[in-house]
Amino acid sequence: MIDEKIWQGVNYLLDEYAMVKSEDQVIIAYTKKSRESAAWVSHALELRNIEVNLIWMKPLKDAGFFDRFVNVLPQKEKLTGNKKLHIMTFELDTLSHTNEIRKALSVYKEKNYLIIRAMSACPELFSYALHAKPKQLLARNATILDRCMQANTLRIKCLGGTDLKVHLDSERFRWISNHGVCRERDTLILPAGEVATYPDCIEGTLVANFAFNLNAITYIDTRLETNPIKVFIEKGKAIDFECENIKMKDIVAKCFKSPNGMNVGELGFGTNYCVQHPIPLNSHINERCPGVHLGFGQHNQCSILYQCNIHLDLITKGGFIWVDEDSLPLNLDNITASLNPHPLNCQAEDVFAPNSDHDLKNDCCGIIG
Question: Which domains does the chain have, with CATH numbers?
Answer without folding.
Answer: 4-129 (3.40.50), 132-179+190-331 (no CATH)
